Each structure stands twice: as structure tokens, then as C-alpha cells.
Amino acid sequence: MLRYAARRLLFSIPTLLVISFIVFALLDLAPNDPTAQLPLTIPPETRQTIRESLGLGQPFHVRYFRWLTQFMAHEPLNLAERMWGVEIGNSAGRLRVRSWSTRAPVVDLIAARLPQTLTVVGVSYLVAVLIAVPVGVFSAYRQYSVFDHIGTFVTTVGFSVPTFFTGTVLIVVFSVTLGWLPSIYDTTHRVTDFGSFVYQVRQMVMPVMVLGLFNAAQLSRFTRSAVLDNLNQEYVRTARAKGLTEPVVILVHVLRNSLIPVVTVIALGLPSTFAGAIITEQIFRINGVGQLLIGAIESADIPTVQTVTFIFAVLIVVFNLLADLLYGVLDPRIRYD
Amino acid sequence: MTDAVPSLGARHRSLARDVWQQFWRHKGALVGAAVFTLIATAVLFGSVIHGVDPQYLDYKAKNQGMSLAHPMGTDNLGRDLFARVLAGGRLSLAVGIAAMVLSLTLGTCVGVLAGFFQRLDGPLMRLTDLFLALPVLPLLLVSIMLFRDPLRSVLGPEVGIFVLIVAVIGITSWMQTARIVRGEVLAVKQREFVLAARSVGTRPHRIIVRHLLPNALSPITVSATLGIAQAIITESALSFLGLGFPSDFPTWGRLLYDGVPFLGLTPARVIWPGLAISLTVLSINYMGDGLRDAMDPRVRRR
């Protein structure tokens, strides 16, 4: 197991390197000029100086390796320094990935946006799991019942209807017509007392539900089929023959075995939920990482786009690894060597 | 034993017939097929009955509700929404089908090559894994931002963006098909009839086209169906983020995006295109479910 984990970890390094190269090279092809939006009165020599100050004068491979070391070595060191309050080497002289439009380090920009995204994505994923698992288990237990038929229909609708449509319909109903919930998510809002907590809940209801129900639809279909696979197994018959009560058979014996594949799917689905949050953030005007990416794309802020895109790739690779390892830990029948 | 033969029935049982019978029994798939046919017919031939130009500006009739002249109302420039939804549907479906064809071709090629030629299996599957690890939505947005203007100047505004969106969706969605086809090819390759074909000197490309592909047809069909739905959703998501088709040649996603600022005034501008996307995708998904059941021999024999 440990050897397998180490090998998988080693394999993910070249994958990440290739992805970082693709992301960097694709954006480097951009016919964008970062000085294009500056006033026309600036003489060409000054423009050239500005370009060079942004690090553009050098050949491709120099810039690629500089970005890679900045992202892979300098930023983790900065992060470690901030977390433990120690100074490692010459931290002031360390170059950082800087945004072209704000001139601030990109990682700081992301760190400022991350809490909002994490709150919405985390809570919605939790809601999704809490809805999906009971619905999936009950649908499978009462296969072909009215509940199962309705559940299957609702989940099919749930993942066929795109989030940007459900989101806007919810805004039309609850914000425009009824006026119950705010349609714009206020990220400057701080929870200090009960009243402000209620406001926070009210502004989170719609984004969390939109993202959560979409994920719940996929997860509950998966849970249903996993439970169905297990219900016909011999050990379930044995458990019933022993005289165990139905709740024990289902909730202890069947559920534990069915959740093995479900847990890995939950881990695999998390990165795409972050990507889905790009759209949700756009609907509800949440000032998160997704909005940072969209804004950076619109203003051709290449370093920010490169870094955020690469972080999404890191998330995918890390959670794929996690899912594989979890599968091995949870299911002792799986042997990797 | 011999008298059992005529009782099998006078009619010949073919795979297509079996599949059709199973599909017919799947009520959801049937309703899905009916709804999809209805939408496709409306989108293709609707302009014959509702002959309003989707680009015609009528300022006096702006922001109207539903009426006999404008069944879905009008937008802030007085354009007829129904005509625009019909025109947008043509574009949305065209993008969905073209992107599906591209991704299916890529996926089938990679899958067949990886499954059939041992030497290529490793590299091609690593490539598939790599593509699966790419963050698709950010990369789609980025590549559209980068190549939109160059392609538009070469191919013209409408064709340029169409080619770009179809290409980026196709290139980032072939991986599932490749994996499924590879698995199928690996399984069929071991069977005796392939060995027989090889032993009489059939060339590899003949084996692939005559023996392997027909046997892998059912999973390819299913992933083709679901691929259309996925492509339509992806395209409308891109348009919703403002990086898809321009407002002059709107798809359903772009119509929805254009309607969002007028949510309080004319919610119909969001509801109708959104409903069109959702119904299309839902009906295609049901058709895919039915096809999968119909083509799965374990289900069919029951």
C-alpha cells in the first residue's frame, strides 16, 4: 500500500509538470499586449521598458522556468513562513508571480478570494452528500416504488438542468418576485451577532442550493446503484437469516459496503465542483476565485489566469490520488501490488 | 429438438430489432425521443410558420409580454423572442452535434489504436489520463479568449466562433469514449473470429473496420447521444460566461445571458431559452438511458 502510494505520488509529478507546461504555453501564445490599454502618448521605448519590467523580454523557456520556480518553490516557502512565523532564507528578495493588472502577488489575490469560494463549495458539497446518500439508499431499498420513480426522475432532471438556469430561475422567484432572499452575495458581510448570522444564511441559501442540488443529483444516482449492487449479495441474506432487524441490515451491513465506491466518487467530484463554482459565482456575484479567473481572462491578466488554472489542475490531480488511495484503505480486498 | 425451430417465429430476429423492442419498452426513452424530435422539428422548420426575422428591430414593441404576434414576447430592442429562440436552437443543436462528432471521432480513433496496437496502448492511455486531469472549464475559457479574434478575422465572425467552440469542446471531451472503445476493442480482439480473420491474412485496418468497430458500436452510440447533451450544456455555459457566441448569432445560452440584466423586467427572456436547453438535454439523457438499457445484452435477454 505504502509503495503504491509512493509510486502514485511520483507519477503525479510528471503529470503536473506537463499540465503546467500546457497551461503556460497556451497562454503564452496569446496575441495580447499588456501595454495595449495604456495611453497612446507613451513612447515606444517606454512601452518596451514596461514590457521588460513585466518580464516579457526574455525567451520562452526562461520565463517558463521562472514561473515554475516561483509557483513551486517560492510560494510554498512564503506560505510556510506565514504559517509558522519563521524566516527561511532571503524572503524579501524572493520573486513572486505578480498580476499584470493589480501588480499584487497572485497568490495573495487568491488567498483573499479563497474563503468565499470555500464556504460556498464546502457547504454545498456537504448539503449534496447529506441529501444524496439517504435518497439513494431509500430509492434502492424500495426499488421501483413510487419514491424510487420520483427520485430517479428528479435526479435526472437535476443533472440535466444547467446550474445557470436553476440559479436565474431561483433569483426570479425568490429575489425578484417574492423578495425573500438577496440576489447578490455580499462578501464584505461579517457575522457578529444573531441578526448578521441570519443574513449570512439568507444570502447563502440560493448559491448553496443550486450547486448542492446539482451535485446531489449525480451522487444519489451513484449511491442508488451501489446499494442495489450490494442488496443482492449473499451476506445480506445471511444477515437477515440471523434475525438482524432491517435497520441494522441496511444501515450497518449494506451501507458500509456501498459507501466504499461512493466515497471515492465524492473525492473525485470535488474538483469539478470548484469548476462549477465559477458559474455559480457568476450568477450570484460572489467575489470568489472563479470571479477572479473570469475577471483576469477579460482583462488579459496572463499570470493570474495561468496560476488559477494551474491550481485547478493541482486540485484534480490531488483528489484523483486521494480517491485512489481512499479506495485502497476502505476496501481491504483491493491490493495494488 | 427439431420441432422447436419453427416456434422461434417466422420473423428473423436481428440486433437492431431487439434493440428497438427494448427501447420501445423504456417509456422514458420513448418520451425523450418524442420531445427531442418535437424540439428538432420546431427549430428546423419553425421559421416557416413563424416567419418573423429574428434580427428585425421594432422599438415600438420592446419588452413586451406574450401575445399572438410575439408568442414569447420581445426583448429590449423589440426583437421577437420566439424567432430568436428558434434560430438559437438551430445553432445550439448544430454546435452540440458537430462537437459530438469531433469528440467521437477522436475518442474512437484513440480507443481503437490503443486497444489494437499493443505498442501504442501505454502512451495513448497516459495521454488520456493527462487530458482527464486538465481543468476543462478554465482551459475552454482561456482558449476562447486567445483564439476568438484571430479565427474571427480569418473565417468571418459566425463561422470563426462556431469552428472554435466546436473544436475546443471536441478536443476536451473525447476521453470517456476513448476509454470505453479501448476496453471493448481489447475484449473483442481476443475472440476467435478476429483470429480467423487475421489467419487468412486480413490487414489490420480491414479487421478494425469490419470486425472491431461494428462490435463496439453500441457503447459508441450511447456516448454519442450523451455527448450531444454534454456539448450543448458546455456551449451554453461558455455563452453564459460571456465567452461564447456573440449577441448577433445567439445560441440558447447567449439568449439566457443577454436576458439576465432584464430579469426584473422580462423574466421570460431567461425562462424560455433556459427551458429549451433543459428540455433538450433532459430528453437526450432519457434517450441515452434507454439506448444503454436496450443495447446491454444482460438487460435485453430478460
Keywords:
heterodimer; A: 337 residues; mainly alpha; 11 helices; B: 302 residues
Q: Would you write up a description of this structure?
A:
The complex is a heterodimer of chains A (337) and B (302). Chain A has 337 residues and is mostly helical. Chain A has eleven helices and no strands. In chain A, helix 4 (106-141) runs antiparallel to helix 5, helix 4 crosses helix 7 (194-231) and helix 6 packs across helix 9 (246-284). The model of chain A has no long low-confidence stretch (mean pLDDT 83). Chain B is mainly α and 302 residues long. Chain B is 73% helix and 0% strand. Chain B has 13 helices and no strands. Chain B has helices at 15-25, 27-49, 81-116, 118-132, 136-155, 157-171, 175-189, 192-199, 204-215, 217-240, 252-259, 268-295, 297-300. The two termini of chain B are 23 Å apart. The model of chain B is unreliable at 1-8 (pLDDT under 50). At the A-B interface, helix 1, helix 5, helix 6, helix 9 and helix 10 of A face helix 5, helix 10 and helix 12 of B.
Any chance you could write out the topology, listing elements then pairs?
The complex is a heterodimer of chains A (337) and B (302).
Chain A: H1 2-28, H2 44-53, H3 60-84, H4 106-141, H5 146-160, H6 163-177, H7 194-231, H8 234-241, H9 246-284, H10 289-298, H11 302-330
Chain B: H1 15-25, H2 27-49, H3 81-116, H4 118-132, H5 136-155, H6 157-171, H7 175-189, H8 192-199, H9 204-215, H10 217-240, H11 252-259, H12 268-295, H13 297-300
Overview in brief:
The complex is a heterodimer of chains A (337) and B (302). By secondary structure, chain A is mostly helical. In chain A, 75% of the residues lie in helices and 0% in strands.
E-strand count of chain B? 0
Instruction: Output the structural class of chain B.
Output: mainly alpha
Mean pLDDT of chain B, as a whole number?
83
Helices and strands of chain A, in N-to-C order? HHHHHHHHHHH
Question: Fraction of residues of chain A in helices?
Answer: over 70%
Number of helices of chain A: 11
Report the oligomer: heterodimer
**Helix- and strand-based class of chain A?**
mainly alpha
Give the largest chain-chain interface (CB within 8 Å): A-B, 43 and 42 residues
Overall mean pLDDT of chain A stands at 83
Largest sheet of chain B: none
Q: Report the end-to-end length of chain A measured between terminal Cα atoms.
A: 7 Å
Number of strands of chain A: 0
The rough form of chain A would be described as globular
| Cα radius of gyration of chain B in angstroms | 23 Å
Percent range for helical residues of chain B? over 70%
Shape of chain B: globular
Give the number of helices of chain B.
Answer: 13
